[in-house]
Each structure stands twice: as C-alpha cells, then as structure tokens.
Amino acid sequence: MVPGRQRIVTANEDKTARVWNAATGQLLGRLEGHTKRLHSAAWSQDGQLIVTASEDKKARVWNAAAEQLLAKLDRSLALRGRSRLSDQLGGVTRGAARTEKTDRPCEG
C-alpha cells in the first residue's frame, strides 16, 4: 500500500499487476508485459513507481500514474555494492529504491 494514499498493487498469476483503490475495491489500472506469472509487486516510497518481478526472470519498473514501462531488468544484471537502483537505470528511479550488497546477479 502506498503510504498516505489509498492504493494497493497486487501481483497476479495472469501475468499482470493491478492497482486498486483500497477503500472501494475499484480497479484503477493494469500493468501488462511479463510473459509468466508474477511473484511480487511493490511501490516505491514516494508512490510514483511500481516494481514487478515474474517467473520470466525479469523485473520491470513502471510509472504508476501513467501505467508506463520505464525499465526492464533481467537476471543477468548484476547490482553490486550500495549503489542506488536509479544509478543502474540511468536515473529513472532517482531516490526511489536502494539495492542490497551482493556478489551475484539478480534472480528475477
């Protein structure tokens, strides 16, 4: 759920993420593009981005308001050290998320 807002995002077996109004249950949007079922979906702290992860071994970064795909990350992308995810993506998620220190590729 987005802090201070009444929206939630769900990861679904039909390969989509859905954004809902938490108070009314109304469907607000669908994020489509994965080729296999989703494992997870999460909001950025500011509520502007959604990150989805799927069995297709890809993570995708979405503009939540526009339902627009901003970036695709696959399991071969190694996120190392304490760099910001925004640095890895050329700034599209400026300040929205941080990566954990790891010496292995992301497992989507």
Could you explain how this protein is built, in words?
The structure is a single chain. The chain is mainly beta. The protein has a domain at 7-76: Beta Barrel (Thrombin, subunit H), CATH 2.40.10.480. It contains one helix and seven strands, in the order E-E-E-E-E-E-E-H. The strands form two sheets. Strands 4-5-6-7 form a four-stranded antiparallel beta sheet, with no helix packed on it. A three-stranded antiparallel beta sheet has the order 1-2-3, with no helix packed on it. The two termini are 22 Å apart.
Q: How many strand elements?
A: 7
The backbone outline, from C-alpha atoms, is globular
Task: Provide the helix percentage.
Answer: under 10%
- Output the structural class: mainly beta
**H and E order:** EEEEEEEH
Rg over CA atoms: 14 Å
Topology, element by element:
Elements: E1 7-11, E2 16-21, E3 27-32, E4 38-43, E5 49-54, E6 58-63, E7 68-74, H1 85-88
Antiparallel strand pairs: 1-2, 2-3, 4-5, 5-6, 6-7
